[in-house]
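Feature request, filed as a ticket because there's no other form

It would be nice if the structure record came with a short human-readable summary line next to the tokens. Right now we just get the raw output. Example of a typical job, pasted below so the devs can see what we mean:
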Amino acid sequence: MAAGSTSGTPAGYIQHHLYNLTYGRHPDGSWGLARSHHEAADMGFMAIHVDTMFWSLAMGALFLWLFRRVAVSISIESPSRLQSCIEAIVEMVDKSVKETFHGSNPLIAPLALTLFVWIFLMNFMDLIPVDFIPHATFLAGIPYMKVVPTADVNATFGMAFAVFFLMIYYSIKIKGLGGFGAELAFHPFGKALLPVNLVLELVSLFAKPLSLSLRLFGNLFAGELIFILIAALIPFWLQWALSVPWAIFHILVITLQAYIFMMLTIVYLSMSHQTH
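Raw output as currently delivered:
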């Protein structure tokens, strides 16, 4: 059991692993890290999850480093395994964009590649043993450390809102402000049912970032929770018998969730480029 579980109970252990390392303003006006979840709650909306920011930026830096390393040492005669893997990923993303995106925009393919690899790397953190990093950071004096950024709804909403902003931007750029407004007001039932059209289209529009964020968050949070439950409730000698099969299955889950987020982004941006 991790040292961060101050109560020494399975419930305390689980709660400790589900809290983020939070930085914000304390009620007395000072700024600093929250030492308990009560202090984190008192910091309010403007608090920041330091662990989510750190690990998401670290995975982004790892993504850039890996791809740059392959790009500067690319070999046609004798490609390395890493080069072959990255080439397969690039070809998969390129094929997906060509088949799904019906428009002309040089941003879409790089965006799709970035989302797929970055989300996959963040999801992959879920396969690290649940006590490995939190225990080490607790010994260093850091009270909490949640290492899976996509298990934090703030991170998934942040990515979804970025995609949503691009959807709105390109809808207005391609169709014009009047065309975008007309699409919301007159589709699908025509001018006679404008209020009904507006309600349906607005619900559909705002459901897109919700579907992107909550699907990714829910799957990764559930996967992380299962690992934590295995570590908290199952005897140590039996944990590997349960966690290893779940980890093998979870490899498919983390890859599939990254792919779904990427594909939905391509589809939504393709819809933004279509004129009726």
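Something like this underneath would help us a lot:
Residues 50-130+147-273 form one domain.
The longest strand covers residues 22-25.
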